[in-house]
UniProtKB/TrEMBL annotation:
<dbReference type="InterPro" id="IPR039261">
    <property type="entry name" value="FNR_nucleotide-bd"/>
</dbReference>
<keyword id="KW-1133">Transmembrane helix</keyword>
<feature type="binding site">
    <location>
        <begin position="598"/>
        <end position="599"/>
    </location>
    <ligand>
        <name>NADP(+)</name>
    </ligand>
</feature>
<feature type="binding site">
    <location>
        <position position="211"/>
    </location>
    <ligand>
        <name>FMN</name>
    </ligand>
</feature>
<feature type="binding site">
    <location>
        <begin position="140"/>
        <end position="143"/>
    </location>
    <ligand>
        <name>FMN</name>
    </ligand>
</feature>
<comment type="similarity">
    <text>In the N-terminal section; belongs to the flavodoxin family.</text>
</comment>
<dbReference type="GO" id="GO:0009725">
    <property type="term" value="P:response to hormone"/>
</dbReference>
<dbReference type="InterPro" id="IPR017938">
    <property type="entry name" value="Riboflavin_synthase-like_b-brl"/>
</dbReference>
<dbReference type="Pfam" id="PF00258">
    <property type="entry name" value="Flavodoxin_1"/>
</dbReference>
<comment type="similarity">
    <text>In the C-terminal section; belongs to the flavoprotein pyridine nucleotide cytochrome reductase family.</text>
</comment>
<feature type="domain" description="Flavodoxin-like">
    <location>
        <begin position="82"/>
        <end position="227"/>
    </location>
</feature>
<dbReference type="InterPro" id="IPR017927">
    <property type="entry name" value="FAD-bd_FR_type"/>
</dbReference>
<feature type="binding site">
    <location>
        <begin position="88"/>
        <end position="93"/>
    </location>
    <ligand>
        <name>FMN</name>
    </ligand>
</feature>
<dbReference type="GO" id="GO:0005829">
    <property type="term" value="C:cytosol"/>
</dbReference>
<dbReference type="InterPro" id="IPR001709">
    <property type="entry name" value="Flavoprot_Pyr_Nucl_cyt_Rdtase"/>
</dbReference>
<feature type="binding site">
    <location>
        <begin position="457"/>
        <end position="460"/>
    </location>
    <ligand>
        <name>FAD</name>
    </ligand>
</feature>
<dbReference type="InterPro" id="IPR023208">
    <property type="entry name" value="P450R"/>
</dbReference>
Length: 680
């Protein structure tokens, strides 16, 4: 500011010397000239103003927001009385919702599936305006009892409202979960209970689907009892129409510009050619692969470390977050499907929704080719669900095949047993079913309509953004096994990642990816001790944690104890990241490195056994030093065994009863001091 004032003073001091010379224009001339210029500018601007600007008119004609978010108005307009909302993370909840909305037609009603994220859920109070109306909720639970991403706003709304009267709402809930998790079906149970508290009327019992057992069977059994109950409640008779109901119609394109054809993009056409942030599930970033190396020294498995370059993407991540990748199906499988069905896979097609009012215009991005759909968009590797068999049965020319397919899709005990043994137990995917049923040759467009979407795969990030801001590491084991029918089944994503070489025929390999935030976080205070328990690829997030704790030490911060319990089969085979871990221990970043080599001795040793070997020190860290515990890996056995071991330690060294010890560990969880990143 001082300098500006000095310059002003200088200018003021030089003015008198200029005035001593005879001016070319008087002050009056300058004033008149300025006035004329001003009038000309004003006239010009005012003359341009009234010209219409088309963009403004376009904005005025946009559809009102109420129409876009009002499911009530949409139901009234299309004559529908049943709405099926879904909370879905991997697509199964959405798939079940679509099946129920389709079912409605068979029972003389009309239904629609709906994503709660797209609608104003406060309108549930108005659903009674529609005669014989019913809201069905297919709600999956994600993570530690959390709602799925698309149901988060609905969950928040249910928690916040207290004065909402839903007494006119008829509802039922089918919950999707997994019994191996601590908070089994928490979201479905909460929605069921909360709607009742707000005055809504439950017309059929809550359904509980267990993915650790047989989710498909649970759903089919619930559904078979649900519809007769609905018909009885509303006093309607089932139409008895068991025929196949198509949701989409096929359109083949013969002269379409290929620039308008989807080639694997998730949302915006050509988004892989012209990348624009922000990046998410609809707009993934194509990250170049910079490292792809095998981690294990020997053995018949393939454990790999893959690094993705996110330079220039503006993607940010924290230690403990997940990276989601979009894999593609094996081209050999896709070609075999095309060969068996006798179709040209490169025909450009669109599958258009027969319900013009539906928000979902296509089952996957269209227009595209059959090859792209079967490679990028559809899941051809999982055993198909019973509804797919039911719909395809009509295309079996052998009556016996047709009968077996219909039986497998029924709720009879015989049908369930046949489906369980012939499809699930034998790990038959759609290709194997077509190979083993030569009389079954469905139209490829109907098959594409029925197959579920190929989902993104999530991996715990094995690096720290503090150390590697432009790099994301993945640690995974390649899935490959022989089925009871003698076929070799390969994990879609892990085999795809394995083949992502750094350079492929001179081109950089890329992986479509985005970041999903996690609650699996290092403690806010670096002085808090950290106890990490992760056998096998469960070590992934802890590689990031170790890097970050090392970085904090380098910054001169005081860092608490960092203890790792890691497990593998053999020291000389699959002791992954051995050099990095031993270097971290040498530098004092890892204060304790405990490793269970489960098969190097006659008696198997696992991480839970090591916990008990150092129970006194562990108890001090947890009970006295405010340590944070992290568990990553298998949910079914390891995570439960670790929890039991910690309860044993609390009972013994804390002088507690079993109930007190169990409550003590649960309290650590609720306080955020016991975090799990586990899978089945």
């Amino acid at each position: 500011m001082q300098r500006v004032n000095m310059d002003a003073d200088t200018a003021a001091h030089t003015e008198p010397s200029l005035e001593e010379e005879e001016p070319y224009f008087s002050n009056l001339d300058l004033l008149l000239f300025s006035l004329i210029v001003g009038l000309v500018v004003y006239w010009y601007m005012s003359r341009k103003k009234p010209e219409p600007i088309p963009e403004f008119k376009k904005l005025d004609t946009a559809a009102p927001a109420a129409r876009e978010t009002s499911f009530i108005e949409k139901m009234k307009k299309t004559g529908k009385n049943i709405i099926v909302f879904y909370g879905s993370q991997t697509g199964t909840g959405e798939e079940f919702a679509n099946r129920l909305s389709k079912d409605a037609q068979r029972y003389g009603m009309k239904g629609m599936a709906a994503d709660p994220e797209e609608y104003e859920m406060a309108e549930l109070a108005r659903l009674s305006q529609i005669e014989n109306s019913l809201a069905i909720f297919c709600m999956a639970t994600y993570g530690e009892g959390d709602p799925t991403d698309n149901a988060q706003d609905f969950y928040d709304w249910l928690q916040e409202i207290d004065d909402e009267d839903l007494s006119g709402l008829n509802y039922t809930v089918f919950a999707l979960g997994n019994k191996t998790y601590e908070h089994y079906n928490a979201m479905g149970k909460y929605v069921d209970k909360r709607l009742e508290e707000l005055g809504a009327k439950r017309i059929f019992d809550l359904g509980l689907g267990d993915d650790d057992g047989n989710l498909e069977e649970d759903f089919v059994s619930w559904r078979e009892q649900f519809w007769p109950s609905v018909c009885e409640h509303f006093g309607v008779e089932a139409s008895g129409d068991d025929s196949s109901i198509r949701q989409y119609e096929l359109k083949e394109h013969t002269d379409l510009n290929m620039n308008k054809v989807y080639s694997g993009e998730m949302g915006r056409l050509k988004s892989f050619e012209v990348q624009k942030p922000p990046y998410d599930s609809k707009n993934p970033f194509l990250a170049p692969v910079t490292v792809n190396r095998k981690l294990n020294k020997a053995g018949d498995r393939h454990l790999m470390h893959v690094e993705l370059d996110i330079t220039g993407s503006k993607i940010r991540y924290d230690s403990g977050d997940h990276v989601a990748v979009f894999p593609t199906n094996d081209s050999a499988m896709v070609n075999k499907l095309g060969q068996i069905l006798g179709v040209n896979l490169d025909v450009v097609i669109s599958l258009n929704n027969l319900d013009e009012e539906s928000n979902k215009k296509h089952p996957f991005p269209c227009p595209t080719t059959y090859r792209t759909a079967l490679t990028h968009y559809l899941d051809i590797s999982q055993p198909p669900r019973t509804n797919v068999l039911y719909e395809l049965a009509q295309y079996a020319s052998d009556p016996k095949d047709q009968e077996n397919m219909r039986r497998m899709s029924s709720s009879s005990s015989e049908g369930k047993a046949l489906y369980h043994s012939w499809v699930q137990g034998a790990c038959r995917n759609i290709l194997a079913i077509l190979e083993d049923m030569p009389s079954l040759r469905p139209p490829v467009d109907h098959l594409c309509e029925l197959l579920p979407r190929l989902q993104a795969r999530y991996y715990s990030i094995a690096s720290s953004s503090k150390v590697h801001p432009d790099r994301i590491s993945i640690c995974a084991v390649v899935v490959e096994y022989e089925t009871p029918t003698g076929r070799t089944n390969k994990g879609v994503a892990t085999n795809w990642l394995k083949n992502k070489l750094v350079t492929d025929n001179g081109h950089k390999s890329t992986v479509p990816m985005f970041i999903r935030k996690s609650q699996f976080r290092l403690p806010f205070k670096a002085t808090n001790p950290v106890i990490m328990i992760g056998p096998g690829t469960g070590i992934a997030p802890f590689m990031g944690f170790i890097q970050e704790r090392g970085w904090l030490k380098e910054q001169g911060k005081e860092v608490g104890e960092t203890v790792l319990y890691f497990g593998c089969r053999y020291k000389n085979e699959d002791y992954i990241y051995q050099e990095e871990l031993e270097e971290a221990e040498k530098k004092g970043v890892l204060t304790q490195l405990n490793i269970a080599f489960s098969r190097d001795q006659e008696q198997k040793v696992y991480v839970q056994h090591l916990l008990k070997n150092s129970k006194e020190h562990l108890w001090k860290l947890i009970h006295s030093d405010n340590a944070h515990i992290y568990v990553c890996g298998d949910a079914k056995n390891m995570a439960k065994d670790v929890q039991t071991a910690l309860q044993d330690i609390a009972e013994e060294l804390g002088s507690m009863t079993r109930t007190q010890a169990t409550d003590y560990v649960k309290k650590l969880m609720t306080k955020g001091r016991y975090s799990q990143d586990v899978w089945t």
